[in-house]
Amino acid sequence: MIEQVILVDEQDNEVGLMEKIEAHEKAVLHRAFSVFVFNDNNELMLQQRAKEKYHSPLLWTNTCCSHQRKGETNLQAGKRRLQEEMGFVCELEEVFSFIYKAPFDNGLTEHELDHVMIGKFNGEPAINRDEVESYKWMTLEAVKEDIETNPDNYTAWFKIIFEKSYDKIANHKIS
Questions:
Q1: Considering only the top CATH level, what class is 4-170?
Q2: Which of 163, 165, 154 is nearest to 47 (CA)?
Q3: What values do phi and psi take at 129, rounded to 5?
């Protein structure tokens, strides 16, 4: 199955569909999401992307992220991908969205309207090794310090979220 992304304008109105790789080659704005899952100790579950990923392999990032499918709500997409990548599902709340553009060394560019969601989970994930190399729990403060010290260990979108929206994530209370 060829994966398509939903093309959007800056107000998140759908304007079409495009094959995922083509959208990244042409740097076309499309809808995406990023999920941040916390435990009761207020630690964030980070994932290390699998070494086979076509961009940002082995970099650390938020719990999971991907693209919505046609007809899928943001929350449905977040739960689907959380199950596919991390092997569990939890309730999610959409907190905010933002637009970013990040070029990669391989000639591809992420140009996304990213919907950020937060959830809570206290178990052990059953990671999909095709998508995820490893995972770990860290406090937001520890993540922030490590990004400052080791920025090349993290994905572009994760660093952008932390830079632009740290307070929104840190101060959000999960219901």
A1: alpha beta
A2: 154
A3: -65, -15
Q: What is the largest CA-CA distance in the chain?
A: 42
Give the Å distances, CA to CA, from 146 to 50, 118, 152, 153: 20, 21, 10, 9
Task: Please answer whether residues 49 and 62 qualify as being in contact, where contact means their C-beta atoms are separated by less than 8 angstroms.
Answer: no
Sorted by where each begins, the domain ranges of the chain are 4-170
Catalytic residue list: 65, 112
End-to-end C-alpha distance for the chain, whole angstroms: 37
How high is the pLDDT of residue 131?
Answer: 95
Split the chain (175 residues) into runs of 10 and give each run's mean pLDDT: 93 97 96 96 96 90 96 97 97 94 87 96 96 97 96 93 83 73
Distance CA 92, CA 90 (A): 6
Q: What is the DSSP letter of 90?
A: -
Q: What is the residue type of 10?
A: E
CA-to-CA distance for 120 and 110, rounded, in angstroms? 27
